[in-house]
Amino acid sequence: MAEPLKEATNFIEQIINEDIESGKVTEIQTRFPPEPNGYLHIGHVKSMLVNFGTAQKYGGKCNLFFDDTNPSKEKTEFVDAIRRDIHWIGYDWAKEVYASDFFDTIYAYAERLITEGKAFVDDLSPEEISATRGTLTQPGTESPYKNRSAEENLKLFREMRAGKYADGEKCLRAKIDMASPNMNMRDPVIYRILHCTHHRTGDKWCIYPMYDYAHPICDYLQGVTHSLCTLEFEDHRPLYDWVGIQLGFSPKPRQIEFARLAVTNTVMSKRYLKKLVEDNFVHGWDDPRMPTIAGLRNRGVPPEALLSFCEKAGIVKANSVCESGYLESCIRDNLNENAERAMAVISPLKVVLTNYEGEEELEFPRHPLKEELGVRKTAFSNELYIDESDFSLDPPPKYQRLKQGGYVRLKNAYIIRCDEVITDSDGKVKELRCTYVPESRSSHDTSGIKVKGTIQWVNAKTGVDAEIRRYGYLLKDAAYPGQDFSERMNEQSETIFYGKAEPYLAEAKDDTAFQLMRVGYFKKCTDEHGRLVLSEIVSLKDNYNK
């Protein structure tokens, strides 16, 4: 008895179900096809979800396919980074395949097209070809070299391979239709000359296939049943099908396009990301502000949160833009459930409790929602730090934090009252003299004093220095038509503070995520000098309207 069809949750799965039901396919084979010309970014997580996730759902296979047909931009460094990123997201591939694995076969197919009169060697320059392509309303002009004999074309193509000609001097074009309403079908270039060392094949080749020509061939040779691409390849599908039909592929892979992921305030172009790295606007491909997977991993974003975001964004046909706040909300939801709690102050302000003597240890739950994690102990003494933002000399109405003569509760500790403010010669607050209420200890409060404000604190005698890094968006705003990319850059996207943290944070393993109470979610790490660094993952406040 045949297995029942999987319930379709998106239009791609509906198409696959139809192909299974009609008997066109029995086993699903997909491929995740990055070009190794840069680091993967969050948009590629959606492509992973589509390609790996679809194969998993149908019990099929997904290959990691490197589209390495442009050696001038590709590096082994990027290959290694892509492998690492895929594994970190949580996927694995059936086979690791490269377009360069098939270069001999792709070349042989080109000779076949020439022999059958379906391709010709053109002497027009790239600029001349562009000028003769026509417009959306006017047909293109055929090349004067289109009617060369198959024998002459084959001779010239082999001379191209042998290195007889310079870059751009000749190319190989498919013979299709210069009057086609689809510009991609107007005798497209399928091979170009490029004297460049390839990261895998070295100097064996000086001609390389164009992606639109190599793509269907590589899919077929891998046994791909469904080639899942982003929407910009929809207009390229007729050429994809033309290559498969002319070369007699059976069964011919089926290309299906889906909308790519776009996020507000986020650079999603490899070209721009590369420029940010090369211009030293960021510290590298893994800078925590970068939307690269390496950057998100370095920032401390859980891979599960990225997959959750892509799942919720949906696999649809029409392009749209997701709010960056939606991504942050998914990250925040994951960390709220999984990150332990701790305390730190970004801008320390000294507090002396004039009526407190000795020291004690107070207990804090490691996670308020997970009792099984137990508690941690935090030292308390007569000298503390609070954050400068939690005190005001001139408080606004309904101010609920500390002010002169006012009360506030220290988290999981005592209620204190500010009695005296010490300032420097410029009037800047340097220290607060306070009294604590002995009967007000948290969970044992018999003081009868009602306070609305609760603030975090760090014991001055045991607290450790911490470099606290906070991040904003790389782009100040969403894209506007005609706006130059450089005009949108946020020069203040990284801010560094020097604060104080409880020693529990310094003792934790590097890369552990914490919720710094009332501050945000941060990753703990150690710099090259052994100093504590707290790097912001996402803010505590959620402005996204779910």
Describe this structure in words.
- By secondary structure, the chain is of the alpha/beta class.
- It contains 13 helices and 27 strands.
- It has helices at 11-21, 42-57, 76-89, 103-115, 126-131, 150-162, 211-222, 237-246, 270-278, 293-299, 303-313, 324-338, 503-507, and strands at 29-32, 61-66, 96-98, 119-122, 171-174, 189-193, 207-209, 226-230, 254-258, 340-342, 344-345, 348-353, 360-365, 375-380, 383-387, 391-392, 402-403, 407-410, 415-423, 429-436, 454-455, 458-459, 464-471, 494-501, 513-516, 520-526, 532-539.
- The strands form seven sheets. A seven-stranded mixed β-sheet has the order 10-25-26-27-23-24-11. A seven-stranded mixed β-sheet has the order 21-18-19-20-12-15-22, with no helix packed on it. Strands 4-5-6-7 form a four-stranded antiparallel β-sheet.
- Helix 8 (237-246) links the parallel strand 8 (226-230) and strand 9.
- The chain is elongated.
- The chain starts with 10 loop residues before the first helix and ends in a 7-residue tail after the last strand.
- 37% of the residues are buried.
- The mean pLDDT is 94.
